[in-house]
Amino acid sequence: MEIILKEDVIGLGYKNDIVNVKAGYGRNYLIPQGKGVIASESAKKVLAEELKQKAVKLAKIKADAEALAEKLNAVSLSFNAKASSTGVIYGSIGSLQIADELQKLGFDIDRKIIAVKDVKAAGEYVAVVKLHKEVAAQVPFTVTVEMDKPETPAEETPAEKKPRKARKEETPAEEEAPVVEETLAEEEAEAPAEEEKTEE
Questions:
Q1: How far is it, in rounded angstroms, from Cα 79 to Cα 90?
Q2: What span, in angstroms and rounded, lies between the C-alpha atoms of 184 and 144?
Q3: What is the pLDDT at residue 173?
Q4: 91-101 per-position pLDDT tens digit
Q5: Most buried residue, 34, 78, 89, 196, by most Cβ within 10 Å?
Q6: pLDDT digits (tens, 9 = 90+) for 149-188
Q7: Do domains 2-71 and 78-147 have the same CATH topology?
Q8: How far apart are CA 1 and CA 19, in angstroms?
Q9: What's the pLDDT band for 118 if we cut at 50, 70, 90?
Q10: What is the fold, at CATH topology level, of the domain defined by 2-71?
Q11: 101, 107, 140: which is closest to 124 by C-alpha?
Q12: How far is it, in rounded angstroms, from Cα 120 to Cα 83?
């Protein structure tokens, strides 16, 4: 008997295929399990119409993918990344960065369909955008790097060092000043006492 498969069956066929099977296998397994239906004339007509509509949709999807691929093939991207003194980029340039740059140019591309290895150095590369199982676009991109300059500690100039030395010399002088004043005060306090003894 003829059966129209409603899903893929290993060793028998794929969805929408018309296959010949033994009556017992078809009636007792395929049809009850929902894996197929009897290929009557009306069922065949319905299947033919479905396949026709599906073919039109698939053709349009492929045509749209080809048109988009043509536009993407004319695009080239450039990235400027910061890198260490050894030339290795901080982070990397990958599918996410490619998708973001394409977004800025008006292309809404899912990063999941962009095939590119993570780039960690300056150079010229190519990202492959898989738009359809039969259509892919190639987007070239260039990576330039800006090297970080190693920081060197700033040395103090002689002009900066002199004020510090002067301040250190001033400190003892300020500390000694009160001692001199205290000594003068003590001498003045003792002077009247000596005058009183002289008068006696």
A1: 13
A2: 78
A3: 47
A4: 889 999 999 99
A5: 89
A6: 655 555 545 555 555 554 544 445 444 445 444 544 555 5
A7: no
A8: 8
A9: confident
A10: Ribosomal Protein L9; domain 1 (3.40.5)
A11: 140
A12: 9
Pull the structure tokens for residue 87: 């030339």
Q: Which amino acid is at 68?
A: L
pLDDT of residue 53: 94
Residue 38's nearest CA partner among 50, 22, 54, 26 is 26
Each residue's pLDDT tens digit, 29-38: 999 999 999 9
Q: What is the value of pTM for the model shown?
A: 0.58
Phi-psi region of 34 (alpha: psi -120 to 50; beta: other; left: phi over 0): left
Q: Are 136 and 128 in contact (CB under 8 A)?
A: yes
Residues paired with 38 in a beta bridge: 3
Q: Is the dihedral of CA 43, 44, 49, 52 positive or negative?
A: positive
- Distance (Å, whole) CA 74 – CA 28: 57
Rounded distance between C-alpha atoms, residue 43 and residue 49, angstroms: 10
At residue 199, does pLDDT exceed 50?
A: no
List the 135-147 sheet strands across, edge first.
Answer: 77-83, 135-147, 123-132, 114-115
**From the candidate CATH numbers 3.10.430.100, 3.40.640.10, 3.90.1150.10, 3.40.630.30, the one assigned to the domain spanning 78-147:** 3.10.430.100
